[in-house]
Structure formats: C-alpha cells, structure tokens
C-alpha cells in the first residue's frame, strides 16, 4: 500500500473540500461490560450484560430464565474471567514461539541438507530452544486449563 506524501495530507487537513456531515451509525454495546454465560438447558453461549437493572436473565435461544447473582458474585466472575484471559495469553505466546522456532529449525535443516552440514552448535541450540518452548507451552496450557471458568445459569 502506497503512502501519501506529507504535503498531500496537509492539504486535505486544511479543508480544500467542503465539509461533509456523515451520519453516525448507532454502535453495538461494548462487549467489555458483558459476561459470557452458558445456558444450562440448551448449552448455547451468549453474552450477559451485568449492567442492566433487571432481576432475571433469559437465554435468547430457549428462553430459559434464571436469577441474576448479586454484585459481589458478578465481581468474582469478572475477576475469574480476567484471570482466564491472562492465562490464555501467557499460554499462547510460547506456543506461537514454539511453532516459529520449530519451522525455522526445519527450514535450516532443509537448506543445509543434513545436521552435520548445519553445525553442531546451531543444530543443538535450535533443537533445544524448540523443546524448551514446547515444554513451557505444555505447562502454561495446563495452567490455563486450571484457570478456565464456565458460567452456567
């Protein structure tokens, strides 16, 4: 994609053209205020908005309704979901690095032709980093699975 020059950007900011009034479209409510929940009857997932004033929540698929928990329970659920997200990100990063280093190792082996032509230091260092990233990924994935929390109603 080509960049515009600075002079063209300045000219467009000065207002060479008439100012258009673009209509603003209504946006959907932010998902940050919601809690993902699972209906205990039909097992469908939906987003529960805890900032509402109603006392019951209804499943949009089967219309099963349930009581909304008090604010302390909602705060506990929000903290558990934040912990789950943090654990997911910490497990994903070493997994991605494992794939990148593993592919780089395979490319280096392919271009060298044999492990002897690659050199002992390069061969064992790439192999060691790949194995280390795999082990870190397994440990952090198990930690993520321990932090997972499902909210049923």
How many alpha or pi helices?
4
Domain module count: 1
- The ordered string of helix (H) and strand (E) elements is HEEEEHHH
For the termini, the CA-CA separation is 49 Å
Tell me, briefly, the overall form: elongated
Q: What is the gyration radius calculated from CA atoms? A: 26 Å
> Assembly state here?
single chain
Largest sheet, in brief, is:
2 strands, antiparallel
Low-confidence stretches: 25-31
Structural class: mainly alpha
- Total number of β-strand segments? 4
Helix content: 40-55%
Portion of residues in beta strands equals 5-15%
pLDDT averaged over residues: 79
The largest sheet has its strands arranged as 1-2
Model description:
The chain has four helices and four strands; from the N terminus they run αββββααα. It has 153 residues and is mainly α. The chain has one domain (32-147). The strands form two sheets. A two-stranded antiparallel sheet has the order 1-2. It has a two-stranded antiparallel sheet with strand order 3-4. Helix 2 (71-112) runs antiparallel to helix 4.
Helices and strands in order:
Elements: H1 6-14, E1 34-38, E2 45-49, E3 56-58, E4 65-67, H2 71-112, H3 115-118, H4 120-147
Helix pairs in contact: 2-4
